[in-house]
Fold this sequence. Notes:
The protein is an alpha+beta fold. Helix content is 61%, strand content 15%.
Amino acid sequence: MKTHTFILFIFLILTSTFLGNDRLQKAEKAYDLKKYKEAIDDYEKLVKDGFKSYQLYFNLGNAYYRDNQLGKAIYNYELARKLNPNDEDVRINLGIASAKTIDKIDSKENFFISAVKSNLLSFFDTNGWAWVNIVSVIILCVFIFLFVSAKNILLKRVAFVLVFLFLIASISTYVLGYSALKSKNDNKFAIITAKETKIMNEPTASATSKFVLHEGTKIRIVENNGDWVLIKLDNGNEGWLKLPDVGII
Length: 249
């Protein structure tokens, strides 16, 4: 019984992979022929079937961008960047698409400080920061051993300096990794995917509209309430909008 189950499991994996590759080729062909809606349909089916990679989201973002669906293009570029923060093509295309958004939100935080903080934390993903910290600690231990065991005064002094430097590096990478993880868990971002959506003062359709946002605008999710989400902008403005109007990153 276990053998039959294992064989069935392998068969399903191979079938799924074959169908996935076939659909991927179909999507890429449609994109090359400038049939962007067909390409979008096939890419979305791959996502729905559980396929997940930054290349898939990047290609889907490109298809949406060519089809003039700016919000969904930016949303998929953001998903691609989340999986691979350092990919240059993703960064460039996201920048181009974001420059075309209508809403320009002024941040309360100093722009330079905000940009440095964001770029620094996203330089590695959380796993990347963990590995950098582990390597730093290992090297630190090596130089501590060298400092303790060295008989030569010059070597001992060099080891002491290196111990000091890698101690700082270990602490810094730990703090940055922890900050990146905290930012990832505490800040739930989303992209407006609807062409235009009203931000309400309460989570009901009969509530008063506070302001309007347009596709591609990046927002922070504060709270979920059924089909509504409470959002907050960088300038401090808050309000409720319908969940289908956003794509949560």
